[in-house]
């Protein structure tokens, strides 16, 4: 090594990403062309192969259903799932693929629930729901109540990303008291979204509020960054948590 080499920044070395402890990824966007996730079957197969190589045995992919942007239906999702399964089988990738959805909580979604319309669930009647990132939805607790009254078990997708929740300890306590299930994005612990999101995500983990983890994978960039997860100070801890992914 030359003298000047001492001042060069050496590449960081960390262990390979292992998700075999998680077993099941229950939040991703891998059905091509129906939301802001994978754009092609080729891209989907690339992402699924990588997820399989991380040690996952099953993927429950969850395309957006949003009344204003992604007007998917259970039929559209199911047709996309069947196409994806055929492609995965043809490619020889050994992983189980299912599909549900990530529902945006608004007035139209509330009406769907009240009217008893078909919605996509997984596991023990779980339903994955999300909100906008900035402002607290006025009907947040009402929608959660209606979901529970209808027999569903709502899982709040990536609560660590909601700016309104980061600054509202009272709301966080309300959700905790209601025993709402939280799903945290593994990417949040890498700093992928922002430092405040990372810090709040770590807080939720330390408080024992996280019951599910998900990749929320949309494209290769997500997985590139997720491979830095072993650098996270909580990487060893989250692998020991009693989360519910493996029951799905």
Automatic annotation (TrEMBL):
InterPro entries: Caps_polysacc_synth_CpsB/CapC, Pol/histidinol_Pase-like
SUPFAM superfamilies found in the cross-reference section: PHP domain-like
Any matching Pfam family: CpsB_CapC
Molecular-function GO terms, alphabetical: manganese ion binding; protein tyrosine phosphatase activity
Coiled coil: none
Keyword match Hydrolase: yes
Transmembrane regions listed in the UniProt entry: none
Region forming the signal peptide: none
Catalytic activity: O-phospho-L-tyrosyl-[protein] + H2O = L-tyrosyl-[protein] + phosphate
Superkingdom of origin: Bacteria
Keyword Hydrolase included in the entry's annotation: yes
Alphabetical keyword list: Hydrolase
UniProt-listed Enzyme Commission number(s): 3.1.3.48
Gene3D superfamilies on file: Metal-dependent hydrolases (3.20.20.140)
Top-level enzyme category: hydrolase
Family: Belongs to the metallo-dependent hydrolases superfamily. CpsB/CapC family.
Protein name: protein-tyrosine-phosphatase
Species for this entry: Algoriphagus aquimarinus
Upper classification of the organism: Bacteria, Pseudomonadati, Bacteroidota, Cytophagia, Cytophagales
């Amino acid at each position: 090594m030359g003298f000047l080499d001492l001042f060069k920044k050496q590449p960081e070395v960390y262990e390979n990403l292992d998700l075999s402890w998680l077993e099941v990824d229950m939040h991703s966007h891998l059905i091509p062309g129906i939301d802001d996730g994978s754009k092609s079957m080729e891209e989907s197969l690339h992402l699924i192969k990588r997820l399989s190589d991380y040690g996952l045995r099953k993927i429950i992919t969850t395309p957006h259903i949003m009344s204003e942007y992604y007007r998917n239906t259970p039929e559209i999702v199911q047709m996309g799932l069947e196409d994806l399964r055929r492609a995965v089988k043809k490619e020889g990738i050994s992983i189980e693929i299912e599909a549900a959805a990530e529902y945006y909580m608004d007035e139209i979604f509330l009406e769907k629930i009240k009217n008893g319309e078909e919605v996509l669930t997984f596991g023990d009647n779980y339903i994955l729901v999300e909100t906008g990132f900035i402002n607290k939805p006025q009907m947040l607790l009402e929608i959660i109540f209606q979901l529970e009254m209808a027999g569903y078990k709502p899982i709040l997708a990536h609560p660590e990303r909601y700016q309104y929740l980061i600054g509202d300890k009272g709301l966080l306590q309300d959700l905790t008291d209601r025993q709402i299930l939280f799903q945290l994005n593994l990417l949040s612990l890498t700093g992928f979204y922002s430092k405040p999101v990372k810090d709040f995500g770590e807080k939720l983990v330390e408080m024992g509020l996280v019951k599910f983890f998900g990749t929320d994978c949309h494209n290769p960039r997500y997985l590139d960054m997720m491979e830095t997860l072993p650098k996270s100070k909580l990487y060893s801890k989250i692998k020991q948590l009693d989360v519910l992914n493996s029951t799905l």
